[in-house]
Amino acid sequence: MSTLKAAQSLRRRILRVLDASGCVALREVDCRVDGDTVRLTGCVPSFYVKQVAQTVILKLKEVRAVENDLHVSSASRRQ
After folding, report:
1. In this structure, are strands 37-44 and 65-72 parallel, antiparallel, or unpaired?
2. What are phi and psi of 54, to 5 degrees?
3. What pTM, to 2 d.p., does this model score?
4. 1-31 pLDDT, tens digit each
């Protein structure tokens, strides 16, 4: 599998895992994959949800590092 296809496949898997987490706010999170590093972007309602996103992603064996660039905003309360 090419590097690009592997990154696209991992990105889809990450988004499915976030969606299945049970936290509605994580459905709004996006990500970019660069090798074994994932960069999370978007807006979440609390620092707790920001940490949950990172923890869920790090459980995937293909992910070694997370750049958690999620923005915390009380205006995005969708949890």
Report:
1. parallel
2. -65, -45
3. 0.86
4. 688 899 999 999 999 999 999 999 999 999 9
The length of the chain, given as a count of residues = 79
N- to C-terminal Cα separation, the chain: 36
Structure token pair of residue 43: 């807006």
Give the C-alpha distances (Å, rounded to integers) separating 2 from 44, 45, 63.
32, 36, 17
In the sheet that 65-72 helps form, which strands lie side by side, from edge to edge? 30-34, 37-44, 65-72
Residue 72, beta-bridge partner list? 44
Burial pattern 3-25, b for ≥16 Cβ within 10 A else e, equals eeeebeebeeebeebbeebebeb
